[in-house]
Structures are given as structure tokens and as C-alpha cells.
Amino acid sequence: MAYVPGYKHDVFISYAHGDDREWINRLIDRLEAALTQRLGTKADIWIDDDQLRKSRDFSKEIPESVRSSAVFLLLPSPTYIRSRYCIDEECRVFAETLPARRTRFATPGFANDLFALRCPILPIDGNEHWSLFSGLTDITFCDESDTFAAGSTTFDSSFRRVVGELVDLLKRMRNHSTSVFLYPPHPGPGLKDVHGALVDELSAHSYRILPDRPVNLADQLREASLSVFLLGAEYEERAGELADLAATQTDKPWVVWCSPMVENARAEQSGFCAYLEQLDSASKTFLNAGILPAKLKEEVLGLLRPNPRALPQTDGKKRVYLVYNARDRAEVKNAGLISFHFRKDFHFEHPDDPAQHTVRLSGSDGVLLVWGSADEDWCEREFAEMVQAFRRRGSQGICLFDPQETKTAAVQEIRKGFNDLYISEQFGKFDPSRLATFFAALQRLSSQALP
User: Fold this and answer.
1) What's the CATH number of domain 318-449, 3.40.50.1820, 3.30.530.20, 3.40.50.10140, 3.40.50.720?
2) Per-residue confidence at 313, pLDDT binned at 50, 70, 90?
3) Which CATH superfamily is domain 9-176 in?
4) What pLDDT, on a 0 to 100 scale, did the predictor assign at position 354?
5) Which of 65, 219, 399, 415 is most exposed, with the fewest beta carbons within 10 Å of its own?
6) pTM over 0.70
């Protein structure tokens, strides 16, 4: 898990294949060790290798890793600036994420940040690399003749500066995230799955999970915007002290969930659960053993409300989530035609990363299902999540693109949740006018209607 909530990776290393990989490996090894020492936890550094390019679809994986990395560290060289892939598929892709990052980190402390570090490893004629993320200051690992030898005085000087700037930026990004106190931090087998599901969901919404260290637990609880207590079979003295503290914070909500294990727990834990149920606290939400983990997660997210930092706005454009079978080239083409034609007025999210599916659904103004030739079972999960997400939000609805008569059961299921479901039956040559009703409705959707 990345150090910065909401990202899969903390640092993406952008370099040119053909440069000195042994030197780059030594740099990365030292960087991983230094960041782990300074941050107190292992930072996630992403770098591709030749095996990736041989064994997986790097044309998709690398751009997605760029987007899902907190910081972009580029190592320019003469080879780098002549690499179409480095410039177009890495630098350009990261530059496209900057408006979203500025929205999420919209405070004066981040006003001048480009969330990137530029570290030339070889001299470049005319300093042409300065056009990459203009405004960055070079942290050089070379002089006019060659790359600094790893371990040399000049190398160490630049390396300390890189580590310092990375640590400062990563800490500021992490601390900017809204925090949730989830206790216990290391639950036993009976609570482990529930705890893990909550961590995954909250992290996907860019929330920071506390406690992240076993000291000053009370201060970490005070720092959090919400506290959640998961009660299992064993009583723990610190849980009682922390729950009492949460009850005194009348301006912050807190949740208690008594798992089914409490019903067979010893008297002390059963009494603690009963004490919390009877405790007079207006900010408390008490959930008994009859509440399923899925409902617990829903309650927690409902108390937090959708985090405005999780899915940043895109220059005022409405956000449309395209759902399609990415393994079917015909459906990819249909989805591409839609997003290309309407790109000036709408921002399109594509289902490249299944882990972000729920987040993108809940943060969208509309969902457009490119159904095509896929059978009904293909979208079973999508139907359930779309209906649940949009019933919660009361949004404008879903558009089914290119439905077929065999899909009537699924269409009827979706219709149950909406009064304004737009269906465009389109076959053959792409005709954008048949989708005009759906997109016109989204344009009229007031931003005040969104949570």
C-alpha cells in the first residue's frame, strides 16, 4: 500500500531504456532504503523493466501506473528526450493528471508544486529537457562530461536533496488527506477481513488510516475526522479508554460495531459492548451484531460523505463513466467514438482499473453502458453497483448504448431504480445524435445536486 492515500504507488521512476540501467538500479535501491528510513514505512516505488515488457501489456500498465503514482521522478538524458514513449506516454500522461492533483491539493501549501522531480543523469544539448514540466528546478546527477559515479561526493549531494524533497512532498500529501481512526489497528482473525475491507475502501477514497504508529493513540484519535471501533471476542483496556475519548468529541462522529463474536465473548467484553450501546453520545453510531459488514462500510462512508479530494473535478466538465468490455475490440472502438465525439464537454472515465470501479461510479454524474454483443452475465456486477450507487445519490440515471432484445431482464432491473433511464438503440454506423438526450440531461444537471 502506498504511503500517500488514494494512490497505488508513491513514486514513478521515468527513465529511458538504453541508459545505464545498472546505475539506475543502484539509485533506486538507495532511494527505497532512504525513504523507508525517513518515512518509517516502505514507500512504493514503481519502475518498469524488460520482463514487464515481455510478459504483460505494458502499453496499458505503464500509463495507468503513471496516473496512480503520487510523485513523478524523471531521469532525463539525450536518449530520454528522443524517446517518444518517455515523452508521450509518461510525461504527457502525468501532465494530464496535474489539474486533478491541484483540485485535490487545493491549498496554498501546494500552490507551486508540480508533484514531480527532474533529475538529469547526462548532459543535454541546449537544456531541452527544461520544457518537461516547466518550472521545475533540476537536481542534477551529472556534470558537462558524464554521470556522477554512484557513491561519489557529488552523487551523494544530489541524492540527499532528492530524498529530502521527496520526503517533504510525500508527507505533505499524506497529511493533507482526511484521516479515519480505525481500531484495533491489527485485529485478530475474526475481525481481519472486515478491517481489511474497510481499509481498502477508505484508501480508495483517499482517506488516511490511523493509527499508523503504536504511540500517542489518543492524539491520533483527536486528529481523525471519524473514529471506528470494531469489537471482537477479546476485551482490550485501550479500546475502552479510546472509546470514552471519542465520546467526548461531540463535534466528530464515531462508530461502534459489535461483531457476532461478541455474543460468545467473556463477560468483560460483553459488558463493554453493552456499556457502549447505552453510552449517551449524540455523535455515536452503534451497530449491533446483526449488522452485516457491507452495511457497516456503508454507514462509515455515509458519515464521512464522499470525500471531495477523492475524485477531483475536471475544469467544470461533467464526469461520465463508460462501462464496456475492454477485451472486445469492437466495444473499445464504440467507447472510443463516444468519448472522442463528446470530449470537449465531458470528461470520460474508463474501466482500466477494476479496483477503482466503485470509486469512479460513485463520483460520476452519469454512467453510459456500452453493451454491444456482450451477454447479460458480463455486466451482472456492473448492474448491481450502478443501481446501488445511483440510488444512493439520486443522480440522473444511466444510458444503455446498443442494447439487444436478449437483455430485457437486466434493463428492467435497472429501470426499477430510475425514473429517467435513457436508452439509445443504436446499431451500425456511429450516430452521436442518438445519444444527445442523455448528454443534454447531464449538461442540465446542477452541481448543487451532487453530494
Assistant:
1) 3.40.50.10140
2) very low
3) Toll/interleukin-1 receptor homology (TIR) domain (3.40.50.10140)
4) 46
5) 219
6) no
